[in-house]
Design brief:
Blueprint: H1 6-17, H2 19-26, H3 34-50, E1 55-58, H4 64-71, E2 76-80, H5 83-92, E3 97-100, E4 113-119, H6 131-140, E5 141-152, E6 160-162, E7 169-171, H7 174-183, E8 186-194, E9 204-211, H8 215-220
Parallel strand pairs: 1-2, 1-4, 2-3, 4-5
Antiparallel strand pairs: 5-9, 6-7, 8-9
């Protein structure tokens, strides 16, 4: 996919501009979200059971979720478009690896990862641009590897843009996100819809999926 897309540069610049404020905003945010923690814990348990492979957080921001994955027993690293976010992540979590880059073009070999977390990062991808990301997620995950997506759900409506505080973002019907993943041979394992808390605006969608074997994978097994 084209990594020079204007929305990538605009998103990176927007997060660079608010990196410190954003870091303060999300610090400790998981503490009050037991349902969110539960699905991330389930993801981590499934990845651990599948074998010792690294796990990437796509769009890691200041690294708090990457650190949470590490605390759940995963060999986790983070990738983000924003240089300022990567600097903060490296400063706050010096024992973890963080790389500047796009979740649309990971610098890893085919099938290298046992798990991939995209926690409210696909929300900034314009709808026509989203399908190739699932192809990249499939490429980097080992057969049987797990993908967990967190996003804003559209509550029965179509895909719609909303006034995100940092950069243009989109709410998606959970079934439509699942269909995009299914086209790249992901198999749905579980889903969770969480209603917004008092200080949140939108319903939250979570999809836990497993990468199925491709024809090439099946052929290689004889």
């Amino acid at each position: 996919m084209a990594e020079s897309s204007p929305y990538l540069t605009a998103t990176a610049d927007a997060y660079d501009a608010v990196a410190d404020l954003y870091t303060d905003f999300v610090r400790g945010s998981l503490d009050r979200l037991p349902l969110d923690r539960a699905i991330v814990a389930a993801f981590a348990e499934l990845v651990r059971a599948a074998g010792p492979r690294p796990v990437a957080e796509a769009g890691c921001g200041p690294g708090y979720m990457t650190a949470h994955l590490r605390n759940l027993g995963l060999d986790a690293f983070g990738v983000d478009l924003s240089p300022a976010m990567i600097d903060i992540a490296r400063r706050d979590h010096p024992d973890l690896r963080f790389e500047l880059g796009s979740m649309g073009a990971f610098d890893v070999a085919d099938g290298e990862l046992g798990g991939l977390l995209s926690w409210y990062s696909v929300i900034h991808v314009p709808p026509p641009e989203l399908p190739p990301y699932f192809a990249e997620f499939r490429r980097v995950l080992a057969p049987g590897g797990y993908l967990l997506l967190g996003f804003f759900e559209s509550e029965g409506g179509p895909v719609q843009q909303f006034d995100h505080r940092v950069a243009p973002a989109y709410r998606w019907p959970i079934d439509e996100v699942a269909d995009l993943a299914r086209k790249e041979e992901f198999v749905e394992v579980a889903r969770m819809l969480r209603e917004p808390l008092e200080d949140e605006r939108f319903r939250r969608g979570h999809l836990l999926m497993r990468r199925g074997p491709t024809t090439a994978d099946t052929d290689s097994m004889g």
